[in-house]
Amino acid sequence: MLPDYSEKLNLNSNLIAAQLRDISDSGNHIFDFASATWSLICEPGDTVAGLLRSALGTEEALVQVVTGATPDTLLERLPTEITEIQNIDRTLEDSLQVWRRRATQADVLLSIQILKSLGGQLVTPSSSLWPNQLADLGNGAPAALWVLGDLNTLVKLEHSVSVVGSRIVSEYGKAVTRDIVKSLVQDGKAIVSGGAIGIDAAAHERALELHGTTVAVMAGGIDRLYPAQNKELFRRISSTGLLVSEVAPGVSPTKWRFLQRNRLIAALSQATVVIEAGFRSGTINTAGHANELGRPVGAVPGPINSVRSAGCHQLIKEGRAQLISIPADLRELCGVTDYTQPEFTSLGQWELRALDSLGDSIKTVEQVSKNAGLTTFEAQTGLASLAKLGLATPTSNGWVKR
Fold first, then answer.
1. Is the CB of residue 125 less than 8 Å from the CB of residue 59?
2. 79 with 147, same domain?
3. Which of 104, 272, 293, 356 is the most buried (most CB within 10 A)?
4. Rounded to whole angstroms, how far apart are CA atoms 121 and 47?
C-alpha cells in the first residue's frame, strides 16, 4: 500500500506538493514520481541530494524538502559521521534553497508526459532493469534515468565498454575506432559513448554497422539531443539500442552537465577506451571518473607529435591507462585471459603479406596483390589459407580481415 502523504502536504501549496498529493491519491507509484522530481530539482552528481535520499528514502526526503523542513531537523536524521563533516549544515541550507526554488517551477507530470510522447520510459532504482553498477557512484548516483529505445539494453551494459575521444578526429583516429569497436562487438560487448561528433559518433556508427549494441549518454533531456547534426544517428541508436539521460526532458545540456555526463559513461561501463584526446578535454575527464571508480582504462597511442593524442600519451605515461594496440589488449582490459591468440609467426610469407594488406574495408584480390607485392596466384593462395585459419573472410566483392 502506498503511504498517504496528503496530511504532510496540506500546509504546502507549491507545485511539487500538489503533484505529489495527486499522484498519491491516484494510486500511481510515488517512488517513481519522487525519483523523477529529484532529477528536476537538483543537478547531476548532487551528493547532498543523494545523501538525503539514502538516509530518509527517496519519497520522504522529497516531502521534507517541499514541506519546509529546516537544516537542523534534517541533520538530526542523518548518520552521525555525516553530520560531523565540516560545513555540512551550511551546505545543506544552500542546497535546500536551490531545490525549493526549482520546485516552485518544476512540472514533473509535464516532463513525464513529454517522455511518453517520445516513446521513452522512466527507469528508477526500484526497477529490475536499473544498472546496479551505478551504485559505485555512491551518493552521486542518479535519482532516475530517462531513456529512449530498447530497455533490455540496460541489462547488456553489465558487459560494456565506453569508447570516447576527441571531437576533432583524424583519419587515423577513425580507423582505430572502427577496429576497436569491431573487436569489442565480436567479443559481445555493448558500446557506450556520448553521442558527440568525432570519435563518439564513429564508435556508435561502427557498432550499428556491425549490428552490435550501442548506448549514447546525453547531457541534456532526451528531447534536446546534442549535437543537432547527429539527429539521424540518435534515431538509429534508439531504434536498436538506447539513449540515456539522468536529467528530465526540457533540461538543456550545459558544460557542467557534460562533465557529469562523463561520470555516467564511466560508471555504466566495465572499462573505458580513450582514442585521440588532448591534454585538457572532456575525454580525459571521463578517464578520470573511470580511474576514481576503479574501472580499467585503456588508451590508444598516436604519433608522438600529435596534439590530438597528447592526452592518451599522458594517461599511459602516468600509469592511469593501459596501452591498447592489439585486440588482445582489449580483452585483457576487460579481464579476459582465457583466449587463444593467433600464432602469426606460423604463417607463411604469402599469408603474412596478404594479411598485412587487408583492413576494415573490402579489398579485391587485385588490390591485395598490388598492396602486398604478390602475384595474383600468391595473393589468392595466401587469402585462402587465411580464410581456413579464420583470419580473413571472402565477400561478394572481395576480402576483409576478420
1. no
2. no
3. 272
4. 24
Domain end point (choices 333, 361, 389):
333
| pLDDT at site 194 | 97
Q: 64 lies in which domain range?
A: 6-106
SS3 242: strand
147 shares its domain with 208: yes
User: Any residues with CB less than 8 A from the CB of 287 and at least 6 apart, and which?
Assistant: 164, 266, 272, 274, 277, 297, 299, 315, 320, 321
Number of domains in the chain: 3
**One-letter identity of residue 146:** W
What percent of the chain is predicted at pLDDT more than 70? 89
Q: What is the C-alpha separation between 247 and 143, in angstroms, rounded? A: 9
Q: How confident is the model at residue 261 (pLDDT cuts 50, 70, 90)?
A: very high
**C-alpha grid cell, residue 270:** 566495465
C-beta separation of 59 from 13 below 8 A: no
| Domain assignment of residue 126, yes or no | no
Q: How many CA atoms lie within 13 A of 251 on its CB side?
A: 32
Q: What is the SS3 assignment for 263-309?
A: HHHHHHCCEEEEECCCCCCHHHHHHHHHHHHCCCEEEECCCCCCHHH
**What does the pLDDT look like over 369-390, one tens digit per residue?**
888 888 888 888 888 888 877 7
Give yes or no for residue 349 having a pLDDT over 90.
no
Asked whether residue 1 is assigned to any structural domain, the reply reads no
4: pLDDT strictly greater than 60: no
Surface-to-core class of residue 151, CB atoms within 10 Å of its CB (0-12 exposed, 13-18 middle, 19+ buried): middle
Residue 110's H or E segment, with its range, is helix 108-118
Place of cell 592489439: 326
> Of 89, 106, 123, which closes a domain?
106
d(CA 176, CA 26): 54
* Domain-embedded: residue 120: no
The verdict on 140 and 213 lying in the same domain is yes
**Arithmetic mean of pLDDT over the chain:** 87
Residue 212 lies in a domain: yes
